[in-house]
């Protein structure tokens, strides 16, 4: 890390979380209106980050926020000094981490005998915890000439692999589907409460449908994209700009990638997707609002909850007019009727017609005869015979 901090003026980044209301506290023994918070002061690479979470948030939530702030992927984050012994596991609730005594800073004004009162969040901060974050940001890894390229999607791939929910539903009939599991729905509400104010690059257009596009291995071969010796045009999936320009006529476009915002922006610029004259990206989402669920087989993986978007623009987008295109079907496990799983684009083959096939589907879905995308079986999307909307 060089000493010139990439964020010159704010030495202190503040991210607040938690306080997600009744849904978030359902498993807690506390009443809903007295959610307690934990403040973290995180020393990282010469700066101080301030993060605040509810006691019923988990370590994975903390790591996701730190990822967004520092670009250090959760799997390589070391939270130094947070506990005395073993580091807390990702599903440990923040309120039950056995903090090291040296990490705790008591709040003097909180008299021990004081009854709980419905005050502002700051008054309910239970403890303040200081620790140090160690880890290498993704961008630095990519430039390591000897290093093997590792990033979120690849790391997770090795841990979980993709999970074909379409096939699983037969095998695991007794399991509660992820989109109906109350535990997941509680997590969803927390994510919506915390992250629905994401920034918008181009305002949504009335009357358009919504295309949610994955980035890594969906619209580009990420390994190639990150190879300094290879031009970005080689990494882009063939026909990418034509695809986006054609899709944009009927769809607002969101790019949702399991990476940190900082890195996502670099990739989009490299791919020539910002400032194009034939299409606009409406908004982008990074890993921060993704959350982890447990698949019927017991494996954990993260999902991209479309509800986060629908709740923000209920008059514009919903399950009836949203399609999520991704090379990993597990990313859509929480919205199984809206996910269109496509072939991963790896090793940058020059002949690839997947985006043309997706465009045909987008035109079919945009045809006036389709009033609800969920009526189309997207699991077999290549076999769909619907009429295409003409320009
Ligand atoms: Mg992908």
Describe the protein.
The structure is a single chain. The protein is an alpha/beta fold and 391 residues long. It folds into 2 domains: 12-136, Ubiquitin-like (UB roll), CATH 3.10.20; 146-383, Rossmann fold. The chain is built from 11 helices and 13 strands. The chain has helices spanning 59-70, 138-142, 152-160, 165-171, 182-195, 222-225, 232-235, 240-248, 261-270, 307-312, 354-366; strands spanning 12-16, 37-44, 47-54, 78-80, 104-105, 125-134, 209-213, 251-256, 283-285, 291-294, 300-303, 322-326, 339-341. The strands form 3 sheets. Strands 1, 2, 3, 4, 5 and 6 form a 6-stranded mixed beta sheet that branches. Strand 8 (251-256), helix 9 and strand 9 form a beta-alpha-beta unit. It is globular. The chain starts with 11 loop residues before the first strand and ends in a 25-residue tail after the last helix. The model is unreliable at 1-14, 16-33, 108-121 and 144-150 (pLDDT under 50). The structure holds magnesium ion (MG). Magnesium ion binds next to loops. One of its GO terms (cellular component) is nucleus. One of its GO terms (molecular function) is protein serine/threonine phosphatase activity.
